[in-house]
Write a structure and sequence with these properties.
- The chain is mainly alpha-helical.
- Helices cover 85% and strands 0% of the residues.
- Helix 6 runs antiparallel to helix 7 and helix 7 packs antiparallel against helix 8.
- The model has no long low-confidence stretch (mean pLDDT 86).
């Protein structure tokens, strides 16, 4: 009788072992399985086999170290390759520019574009903390430098176009950088979720659209307060904002 009872206990324990290993059993079950494993060598052997298998599944640290090293090396090779390619491209442009124009003109624009792209990719690849903020900083500075270079090259070196940078270029650039920065700052420092950040972004896009038109003169102040043009300018964004705000509330509520 006692033997049959022990057999039954073993059977139950072995059925529960997978759950026990995963820590999915209740406290009471855990206690009685603990007791059984202490007394029963067969069951404790099975248990040890199971945990051994579990350990085999997660790679030992050395292998993960090697993997991490390979990933890092790949990244570095990619960045070096990119830098090398950009360098060659800019060099070729400089030579052609010097030969054709007897001076440095459009190759300045190519060079700064390459530098801008490289800097952005470098930031994205190497930055671990605050990746978005760092990338945004690179974009902000890079866009300013790039616009300035284009303006200087076109107007002062090539003698074409007008001085648009200070009239339209910079105000519009600052405006749209603000449109990008505010949601990023909200997400980073105020810990807003992605839905709220997107909703804020869309709201700022509406303001950005109107403000851009005001700056370029496509729009005058009176037009802002008319419904005319609202559907074309802001309706899509308004619907988007409502959807994103709702999704944001639902995800928060579910947590
Ligand atoms: Zn047993």
């Amino acid at each position: 009788m006692e033997l049959r009872e022990k057999e039954l206990a073993c059977e139950i324990v072995r059925d529960l072992l997978p759950l026990y290993v995963d820590g999915m059993v209740s406290d009471v079950s855990k206690k009685s399985i603990d007791n059984h494993l202490e007394q029963c060598t067969e069951c404790s052997e099975i248990y040890q086999d199971m945990t051994c298998h579990l350990e085999m599944e997660t790679p030992p640290t050395e292998i993960s170290d090697v993997k991490r090293f390979l990933k890092k090396t790949k990244k570095m090779y990619f960045l070096y390759g990119l830098g090398g390619l950009s360098f060659i491209a800019v060099l070729v442009c400089l030579i052609v520019d010097l030969a054709v124009n007897k001076g440095i003109t459009w190759s300045l624009i190519v060079g700064s574009s390459c530098l801008f792209t490289d800097a952005l990719l470098y930031a994205l690849f190497t930055c671990k903390k605050d990746k978005i903020c760092t990338s945004m900083a690179v974009i902000s500075v890079g866009a300013f430098v790039l616009l300035s270079v284009i303006q200087i090259t076109r107007y002062y070196l090539l003698g074409t176009g007008t001085v648009w940078l200070f009239r339209y270029g910079l105000p519009i650039l600052l405006l749209w950088l603000l449109v990008l920065w505010l949601p990023v700052l909200g997400g980073t420092f105020l810990k807003w979720n992605i839905w709220d950040c997107t909703a804020l972004f869309l709201f700022l896009v509406i303001i950005g659209n109107y403000a851009t038109k005001l700056i370029t003169g496509d729009y005058v102040w009176e037009d802002v307060f008319h419904m005319q043009g609202f559907t074309g300018n802001a309706l899509g964004e308004v619907i988007g904002i409502m959807i994103f705000v709702m999704v944001g509330r639902v995800t928060k509520w579910k947590k």
